[in-house]
Specification:
This protein has 210 residues and is α+β, with helices and mostly antiparallel strands. The chain is built from 6 helices and 12 strands. The strands form 3 sheets. An 8-stranded mixed sheet has the order 4-1-7-6-10-9-8-12. A two-stranded antiparallel ribbon has the order 2-3. Strands 5-11 form a two-stranded antiparallel sheet.
Length: 210
């Protein structure tokens, strides 16, 4: 895996349900490296701290491999890296293979895979179509958030190298599908509940489905 683009966002005013708010989802490529800090990416905009940023969502990664799929669905958009609000656009990132809890060397940072991105209305605003939310869920490749175990700097072209594979076989995609499936796979559910790379608050909520 390799970093293809580093992306940052400025505070952008939007209107939703007749209410004005601000978002950081409008991220665009920058020609500078990113410093991954413990709770966010230095210099980035994180407005809604309840749902973004923090230890378990310090940085968001999305795969270049899925851009072609979405470009075909939305050919009229002005496409560039960062369209999904990701800080790092990564070539070869595969949610069906990457395990929650695995650790990677990313530039000079040491990071851990934590959880998939769950889409909200702000993604629909950026795409100009709220139907993308269901499409994003159905596609099953949501990108992943990471925890920063050791802060560091990431340049374009840096590899993302596996340091230690999680003992749990729970993949980002398996967990993502679990979150949105009507019938919960109990084996996957138990793996998620026992996976300490997921935030404790989230694991407690999962127990309601057990």
């Amino acid at each position: 895996m390799k970093v293809i683009s580093t992306n940052l966002g400025e505070p952008t005013k939007i209107v939703w349900n007749n209410k004005a708010t601000t978002t950081g989802i409008y991220k665009y490529p920058v020609d500078t490296p990113l410093f991954l800090d413990t709770e966010d990416v230095q210099g980035d905009t994180v407005v809604d701290r309840k749902h973004h940023g923090g230890i378990y969502k310090a940085c968001y990664l999305f795969s270049t491999d899925n851009y072609g799929y979405w470009k075909e669905k939305y050919p009229l958009l002005d496409w560039n890296w960062g369209m999904f609000g990701e800080n790092l656009t990564v070539e070869g990132l595969d949610e069906s293979q990457i395990r929650i809890g695995s650790t990677y060397k990313l530039g000079t940072a040491l990071v851990q895979i934590t959880q998939p991105r769950e889409p909200c209305y702000k993604l629909g605003i950026r795409f100009g179509d709220q139907t993308i939310l269901k499409q994003f869920i159905d596609h099953g490749f949501p990108g992943t958030y990471i925890r920063i175990l050791e802060p560091g700097t990431v340049f374009i072209g840096d590899p993302m190298e596996l340091v230690e594979e999680s003992k749990s076989t729970l993949t980002v995609q398996q967990f993502y599908n679990l979150l949105f499936s009507k019938t919960k796979n109990q084996d996957v559910l138990q793996m998620a509940i026992q996976n300490e790379a997921l935030p404790l608050k989230k694991r407690k909520k999962l127990k309601k489905w057990a």
